[in-house]
Design goal:
- By secondary structure, the chain is an alpha+beta fold.
- It has two domains: 183 residues, no CATH class; 119 residues, no CATH class.
- The protein contains eight helices and twelve strands.
- The strands form three sheets. A five-stranded antiparallel β-sheet has the order 1-2-3-4-10. The protein has a five-stranded mixed β-sheet with strand order 5-8-9-7-6, with helices on one face.
- Helix 1 packs antiparallel against helix 2, helix 1 packs antiparallel against helix 3 and helix 7 runs antiparallel to helix 8.
- The N and C termini lie far apart (76 Å).
- The model has no long low-confidence stretch (mean pLDDT 84).
């Protein structure tokens, strides 16, 4: 029996995640633009908080959309592999005790609290099964995989075909014994942290952004007005209140987070790690440039 893949239903989840990401990106860009032109006061602070609220869910939604695109369930004579983004669970067929639809359970199965269409992820507790880990996209096609350690809830697009293939694999028997394996996204962060160059680049970006944020916070009470931005001829625009400088470290932090996440994506492959280093170097350099921009803003005569 060759390896057979049973992907989860993706279309609805990808559509929902794409709409949410685009809406939050538009809200983030709009709030930053409004903050750059608003008078200092409640509206200025409100726009900054709104930009922060719009940005925070973006990495979370982006990863879930990426995970759904890469999600799949692979079945062969030796193992069942559940792959969901950076989450990988390999279950030897000999460890699987039973497979049944979630609808057959006498007690209803509670779904994870932080769920979206295309992203049923997390753990819940069932009165009969104990801990159930969801690696699924759609509650309408849920199958339960029972092992001695834990029960997994998955959602192949064709549950009947999956169940038949599983029964056939059990009847044919395993060719070679395999060990169970669990990988979590946090493992990648820990692995990258072991690299001295990675640690240096991450800490550089953190310290530069933290220093920029603290410096601007200390400058605001003592400064009067500062130039912020240039016209089409490269000349400084009119001076503004110093509170506007807070936009610079905030944008720098947002870009650094985006670069950090992008670097983690490429770091998974040995042959692509140079791209991860380039992104992390760019994040550190951009943080330095934003710090220099603050320096120019407070030292340029008005």
């Amino acid at each position: 029996m060759s390896t057979t893949d049973f992907p989860p239903p993706r279309r609805r989840g990808i559509l929902v995640h794409t709409v949410l990401i685009l809406a939050l990106l538009a809200l983030f860009a709009w709030s930053i633009w409004r903050a750059s032109s608003a008078e200092v006061g409640p509206f200025f602070l409100g726009y900054l908080l709104l930009s922060l609220a719009a940005f925070i869910p973006l990495p979370f939604l982006g990863y879930r959309a990426y995970a759904l695109l890469r999600a799949n369930y692979y079945l062969d004579r030796d193992r069942l592999t559940l792959r969901w983004g950076l989450r990988v669970e390999e279950l030897p067929l000999s460890d699987i005790e039973w497979v049944r639809p979630a609808s057959d359970m006498p007690a209803p199965l509670s779904l994870p609290p932080l769920r979206l269409p295309g992203a049923l992820l997390g753990r819940t507790r069932h009165p009969d099964l104990g801990v159930v880990e969801f690696i699924a996209a759609d509650s309408r096609t849920l199958l339960l995989i029972g092992t001695a350690r834990r029960v997994f809830a998955i959602s192949p697009a064709d549950p009947l075909a999956f169940t038949r293939s599983f029964q056939r694999a059990i009847e044919m028997g395993s060719l070679t014994p395999v060990a169970a394996r669990s990988l979590y996204p946090s493992f990648l962060v820990a692995q990258a942290w072991q690299d001295s160059l990675t640690r240096y680049l991450w800490l550089s970006a953190v310290l530069l952004n933290l220093g920029s944020l603290v410096w601007v916070s200390l400058l605001i009470p003592s400064a009067t007005r500062v130039p912020l931005g240039f016209d089409a001829f490269g000349r400084p625009l009119g001076p503004v209140l110093p509170e506007r400088l807070m936009i610079l470290p905030l944008v720098s932090i947002f870009l650094a987070i985006a670069g950090w996440l992008g670097g983690l994506y490429f770091y998974r492959w040995e042959e692509r790690r140079v791209l991860a280093y380039l992104l992390w170097i760019s994040s550190a350099l951009s943080s330095l440039l934003f710090l220099i921009a603050v320096l120019f803003a407070v030292t340029t005569p008005v």
